[in-house]
Design a protein that fits this description.
The complex is a heterodimer of chains A (about 475) and B (about 280). By secondary structure, chain A is α/β, with parallel strands linked by helices. Chain A is about 45% helix and about 10% strand. The mean pLDDT of chain A is about 95. The chains are: A alpha/beta (about 475), B alpha/beta (about 280). Chains A and B meet through helix 2, helix 11, strand 13, strand 14 and helix 20 of A and helix 1 of B.
């Protein structure tokens, strides 16, 4: 359906809903690269004004990527909860923004209507929202998950400990892991991006992390971020797999370029559930076994965007995530490079949008607050984004020694950054993990990180790989 | 009179991490210590310097004159070309433009190609040097790497000129190789700089270069620098791949890099023969 909007003497024409969405999007390099961005500031605003008047119902009628050719669209349509939608079905996109900001939309209400919201509706309303709106509404959304600890409780923020090493050296990984644990990080997951693709080497990594978790009796979970097919094979071979990882994107074609489809993810989920390694027995169940990563621009880079802007594509990936009840979903916001998100301003905006859309849809969204050295960004931008996101109730951030990932060659957030957020905003780790930190004298009763002495039990009782180096801490 | 504090050493505000020995196992920034729960000043400044080096690697223009004379001193002819990306900001925003030659560069290469055709010469192997995302990598490593590579290039191979490409992406070598009719092209290009590796050089080998190829059609050797893969190792690997590509008439995923295995095999053969 064609849309038009008149501003003064100029009539702006949009050939369909996806063009309105693309042109209403705050400026970013990836949409220019795709040739989808508004050409003038006024055109962008007219697209937003046009979008504000479109009824939410229209998003169920006018599918931006055809049902017949895309399984993500089919998932969105087939799992749409009409009853949940009924409460907001009378609203336009502009009304929906007002409604979300109003006190009627409290945490309970937002949770109730989440299955009635499609990714396109979430993306659409985010395009009308200022950064503070994205923060305020996300903060009201509650998405709580569990495996060996409980993630996403209000007033908490978790950390993925990411002890990467360029050659997967066991001692290098163990050293970074110990560093992070002694800084109170690792409650979201201890997750390694391996350099290798070899199954025996991956198996070793699973055992390495599992041994550390068992040795110190840490209430957390591990993940090795290799292709999902490798993980399924390793489960069959008896690997101690906690969470199954996969990168996902918002179109079937993009996912195909990753070598996956929804059925394969389902298969992986069943395989991980069959191991029954989650231990939390509270109301949240301990059965969230998936860890997804996403990021604006991945669909375009796979040449699979079908004229849809990168932020809307990103929100569609959350439909897949939502379907598979992940423990964690991570938008890796600044990793892709300046041709998709050029500078700190664009990265910050995208991070807030992704977090808002994910939470609104009911996905436990964390953020790899990050940048590459060819982007116009620096640590100050990361400070800004992590502070904004933590204020908005972000589920988790990355924790890397000194914010410098020596394997993936980019900068993300550090163990120190997590301590900063906890201190400034009064946020706490997952409760089970916090208890462990206190037991280990890493955190005091007030939640402050403690100095670690040479005689600390973790240094006196090092992981096997470090012990073999015969280090002395006395 | 005011009381003198017990410990007035400047480091009294810092918590030191007593696991600094573990730094021997990784270049990761572990055991940094804390000022409160934040980074100590020294670490903030060290990080800032590393980022500055990486930023300069991306943004400083390559000194082409110096590079050219270095390459020529190895006995190579050189040609300079430019991609369609006129400057660094455009290059960063439009990867597609970095993959194509300007009309002027294209015309120049076509003239060179015509001369080769007239002389009935087909290039077996040629090298393109692209600034990529780290001019520092190219400035530091290309000349010594070429000196090493020359030792392993078969004498019967016809070598093309070394093409020095500005604002270049990897795939620019496809167009260059195609225009010059080269059987194989190796692109030496500055990789995306990391904080601990601002000058890492990448090598991409493509058999039968032509427009429209993808990364799956190339073999990559990455992290070439003295602290990573040294010049001798990189040169041997490149020429092992190039000889295999020439033999199998293919590069990319269909050509598995088994240079390490072969080397090991040779060593073990040597061992056996000694027995």
């Amino acid at each position: 359906m064609a849309y038009r909007y008149i501003v003064g003497t100029i009539t702006y024409q949009f050939s369909d809903l996806k063009e309105v969405l693309a042109k209403a999007t705050p400026a970013r390099s990836g949409d220019y690269l795709a040739g989808l961005a508004a050409e003038t500031y006024a055109e962008r605003m007219s697209a937003r004004m046009c979008l504000a008047e479109i009824p939410l119902k229209q998003f169920l009628e006018e599918l931006i990527i055809p049902y017949e050719t895309d399984e993500v669209t089919r998932l969105i349509v087939d799992t749409h909860d009409k009853e949940a939608f009924a409460e907001i079905s009378h609203l336009t996109v502009g009304d929906f923004r007002d409604w979300l900001l109003s006190d009627i939309a409290d945490s309970v209400t937002l949770k109730r209507i989440a299955p009635g919201i499609t990714p396109e509706m979430a993306a659409a309303v985010s395009k009308l929202m200022r950064n503070q709106d994205l923060i305020l509404v996300a903060k009201k959304c509650r998405v709580i998950t569990s495996f060996r600890n409980t993630i996403g409780l209000p007033g908490h923020i978790s950390v993925r400990l990411q002890p990467n090493h360029p050659t997967d050296d066991a001692r290098g990984i163990a050293a970074s892991m110990l560093d992070g644990l002694l800084y109170g990080a690792g409650d979201a997951v201890i997750g390694i991006n391996p350099a290798t693709d070899s199954l025996p080497a991956l198996m070793d990594l699973y055992y390495l992390v599992d041994e550390v978790i068992n040795q110190y009796n840490i209430p957390t979970q591990s993940c090795i971020l290799t292709h999902v097919t490798n993980q399924i094979q390793l489960i069959e071979k008896g690997a101690p797999v906690d969470l199954v990882f996969q990168s996902i994107a918002g179109t079937e074609k993009a996912n195909k370029s990753f070598g996956i489809d929804i059925a394969l993810l389902k298969e992986a989920q069943s395989a991980a559930l069959s191991l029954n390694r989650g231990t939390v027995k509270n109301e949240y169940g301990g059965s969230n076994v998936m860890y997804f990563e996403t990021g604006q621009g991945s669909v375009l880079s796979a040449n699979a965007n079908f004229g849809v802007d990168q932020q809307t594509c990103e929100a569609r990936a959350y439909a897949i995530a939502r379907h598979l009840s992940p423990l964690l979903t991570n938008t890796v916001v600044g990793f892709i490079g300046p041709e998709y998100l050029y500078d700190g301003k664009q990265i910050i905006r995208a991070g807030l949008e992704d977090h808002f859309c994910g939470k609104l849809l009911g996905v436990p969204l964390g953020c790899d607050v990050c940048y590459t050295n060819h982007a116009e960004a620096d640590q100050d931008d990361m400070d800004t984004l992590m502070t904004l996101l933590a204020t908005a109730g972000l589920t988790f951030i990355m924790g890397i020694p000194g914010a410098d990932d020596i394997m993936l060659n980019y900068q993300t957030t550090s163990f120190h950054d997590a301590l900063y957020l906890r201190k400034v905003l009064g946020l706490r780790p997952a409760p089970e993990f916090e208890q462990w930190l206190k037991t280990m004298n890493i955190m005091d009763a007030q939640g402050q990180i403690q100095p670690v002495s040479k005689t600390h039990s973790m240094l006196q009782n090092m992981p096997k790989n470090l012990l073999s180096a015969q280090l002395k801490f006395c | 009179m005011s009381k003198i504090p017990k410990d007035i050493s400047p480091a009294a505000h810092l918590s030191v991490d007593p696991w600094r020995q573990l730094k021997g196992f990784t270049r990761a920034r572990i055991a940094l210590g804390r000022a409160g729960s934040s980074l100590p000043t020294k670490e903030v400044l060290d990080f800032g310097l590393a980022h500055a080096m990486a930023r300069d690697a991306v943004h400083l223009m390559l000194d082409i004159d110096a590079l050219e004379s270095g390459i020529q001193s190895q006995g190579f002819k050189t040609i300079r070309v430019h991609s369609k990306a006129p400057d660094r900001p455009t290059y960063l925003l439009r990867p597609d433009l970095g993959r194509r030659l300007t009309d002027q560069s294209l015309a120049e290469l076509e003239r060179v190609a015509m001369l080769s055709r007239n002389a009935a010469v087909t290039i077996d192997f040629m090298i393109v040097v692209g600034d990529g995302l780290s001019s520092l990598a190219v400035a530091h490593h290309v000349t010594p790497l070429l000196a090493e590579a020359l030792k392993y290039i078969p004498a019967e191979w016809k070598l093309g000129p070394v093409v020095i490409a500005s604002q270049a992406r990897v795939a620019l070598a496809d167009e260059i190789g195609q225009v010059l009719g080269a059987r194989m092209v190796a692109m030496l290009i500055g990789e995306r700089p990391g904080l601990s590796s601002p000058d890492s050089l990448g090598i991409y080998l493509t058999y039968h270069p032509r427009l429209g190829l993808s990364d799956a059609d190339r073999n990559c050797i990455s992290n070439v620098r003295p602290e990573g893969l040294h010049y001798v190792g990189a040169a041997k690997k490149l020429l092992w791949l190039a000889k295999e590509a020439a033999r199998l008439k293919v590069s990319g995923v269909a050509l598995k890099d088994e240079s390490d295995i072969q080397e090991i095999d040779q060593k073990s053969m040597l061992h056996i023969s000694k027995l």
